[in-house]
Amino acid sequence: MTRHGAMPDPARKDSPRGEETRTLILDTAEAMFVERGYSGVTMRALTAEAGVNLAAVNYHFGTKDALLLEVFRRGSLSINRERARRLHAVEAAAGNRPPAVRDILRALFEPPLRATFHSRRASSEGSAGGSSIYMQFVARAVLDGPPQMRALIERDVTHLERFVEALSRALPDLPREDLLWRFHFAMGALHSIYHDLRRLDALSGGACDLGDVDATIDRVVDFAAAGLQD
Amino acid sequence: MTRHGAMPDPARKDSPRGEETRTLILDTAEAMFVERGYSGVTMRALTAEAGVNLAAVNYHFGTKDALLLEVFRRGSLSINRERARRLHAVEAAAGNRPPAVRDILRALFEPPLRATFHSRRASSEGSAGGSSIYMQFVARAVLDGPPQMRALIERDVTHLERFVEALSRALPDLPREDLLWRFHFAMGALHSIYHDLRRLDALSGGACDLGDVDATIDRVVDFAAAGLQD
DNA sequence: GTCTATACTTAGATAGAC
DNA sequence: GTCTATCTAAGTATAGAC
User: Whose C1' is closest to the CA of A6: which nucleotide?
Assistant: First the structure.
C-alpha cells in the first residue's frame, strides 16, 4: 500500500522512470490544485496533464487524498524551516534581551506570504512582488480538501510553539492564556489574507492592493502586534 | 429546475407533504453537515436519515451543492438580521456621536458566535454557554463545500458595509484603505475561533476554554479593537 | 404538484496482465 | 514498475405513480 524506501537502480534511462514519475506527479498536482482546487482536479485530468497513467498516482501515493497531503507536506516543510531560521536570526540579533514583538511576528508571517512553489513559474513571479502561491494552495487545500488535511494543518503546531515561547519572553506580563488566544487570533489575521481574499476585494471595490506583498506584511504585522500588546 | 413560489392547498394531511419535506431535508442536512462535513454526508445517507426518497433532494433543491447553499442562506439570514438590529441599537444609544469601536465590534461578532441552528437540540444548548453551531457549520461548509460556497460567503458583503461605515465614523482619522485592511484582519480573527479551533486546543494543551462564549467574545473584541485603533 | 423507483454518468480504487 | 480493464460508490436525471 504505502511506498517502500528501497529503490532499484536509478541510473537507467528507459521507460520505467521510478522517482521521476513521482516528482512529476507532485509538481503537476501542485500547479493544478492551485488553479482549480482539490475537487476540481480529477485523477484523469491530472494524470493526462502529467503524461502518466491513471493508476500511477495510486501506485505512488495510494490515494488522491494522500497525494494532496504529500504536496502540502513538501511545501510546509520548507516554510517552517525558513520560519525557524528567521526566528533564530532575530533572537541572535537581540542578544540576551528578548526580541521585539514585531520582529518575531515578521519571522512568522513573511515565509508563508513570500513562498512560491517548486514548479515552473517560480521564476516569473518570484519572491519579490508576486503573491504567495503557497498560501493560495493551502487556502484551496483546506477549502475543499479531505478532513485529514485540516487535521494535519491544525495539529502541526510544534513549529509554532517556539514562536509562542519567544512572544512569551517578549511579553512577560501577559498571562499565558491571554497570549495563546491572541496568538490564535493573529494567525487568523494572517490566514484571512488569502482565505477570504475576495471579501476584501469586494468590500474595497478593488481599492486594496493585494499584490503588494511588502505592504501586506507590514499591515498584518502592525495589526497583530497591536492586538497582542493590548 | 428551480423551485416555484406558488403552492397547492397546504391544509391537506395525506402523503404529499409539500413544504414539510423541504424543511425536513434542510434540518437534517444542517445537523449532518455539522457532524460529518459536506463531503462526509452522502445523498443516500442524508435521505435515509430524513426518511425521504433519494430523489427528493434533487426535486426540492436541484443539487447537493444547492442544498448546502440553502442551508447556509437560511442561517446567515437570521445572523445578519440580528447584526443589523444590534448595530442599529448601538447607534441609537450613541445619539449623534459615533458609537465606540468596541460596541460596533460586539454587534458584529456576537450574533454569529451565539447562533445555534433551528434543529432539534436548539433547546439543550441554547444561547447561553454552549458553543456556536452556526460557526461550526460555516467552518465545515467552507472547509469542504463546493467553490460556490466560498464565493457566496466572500461576496456577501453588503451587510458588512454598514459596519465598515460605522467604524469609519468612529475612526475618522484612519485612511479608508487602512480601515478596510484592518477590518479584514478583524474578520479573520473572528473566523479563526472555529476555523482553526483544534490548533488553539493543541497549542494550549487544552488550557484555553473554547466553551465559554462570553469570555471568547470579550477576547476577540479586545484583540480586534486594539488592531483597528493602532 | 409531490414523491418514488430506477437507470445513467462520472470518478476514485484495484487486480492482474505485461 | 507500469498500464489496461474493471469494480464500486456517489451525484444526477427521468419516467411515471399518486
Answer: D1
CA nearest to A200, candidates B135, B155, B128: B155
pTM: 0.83
Closest by Cα among A119, A139, A128 to A196: A139
A186 contacts in chain B (CB < 8 Å)? 189
CB-closest option in A147, A188, A202 to B154: A202
Predicted confidence band of residue A132 (pLDDT cuts 50, 70, 90): low
Q: Which of left, alpha, beta for A205 (phi over 0: left; psi -120 to 50: alpha)? A: left
CA distance A168 to B83: 35
Cα–Cα–Cα angle for A28, A32, A36, rounded to 5 degrees: 170
Residue A198, phi then psi, degrees to nearest 5:
-70, -20
Q: How far apart are CA B226 and CA B223, in angstroms?
A: 5
| A113 and A135 Cβ atoms separated by less than 8 Å | yes
Query: pLDDT per residue over B104-140, tens digit each?
Result: 999 999 999 988 766 444 444 433 334 567 777 887 7
Q: Do B180 and A226 touch (CB under 8 A)?
A: no
Secondary structure of A74-107 in the HEC alphabet? HHHHHHHHHHHHHHHHHHHHHCCCCCCHHHHHHH
Q: What is the per-residue pLDDT across B156-165, written as a single tens digit (0 to 9) for each?
A: 788 999 999 9
Instruction: For chain A, give the percent of residues with pLDDT over 70.
Output: 83
**Radius of gyration (C-alpha) of chain A in whole angstroms:** 20
Annotate A165-206 with DSSP letters as a single string: HHHHHHSTTS-HHHHHHHHHHHHHHHHHHHHTHHHHHHHHTT
Question: Which A residues 165-224 touch B at CB under 8 Å?
Answer: 176-178, 180-193, 195-200, 202-204, 207-208, 219-220, 222-224
Its sign, for the CA torsion A17, A19, A24, A25, is: positive
d(CA B163, CA A58) in angstroms, rounded, equals 49
B64 CB-to-strand D distance under 7 Å? yes
Q: Are A131 and A213 in contact (CB under 8 A)?
A: yes
Closest Cα in chain B, distance from residue A228 (Å): 7
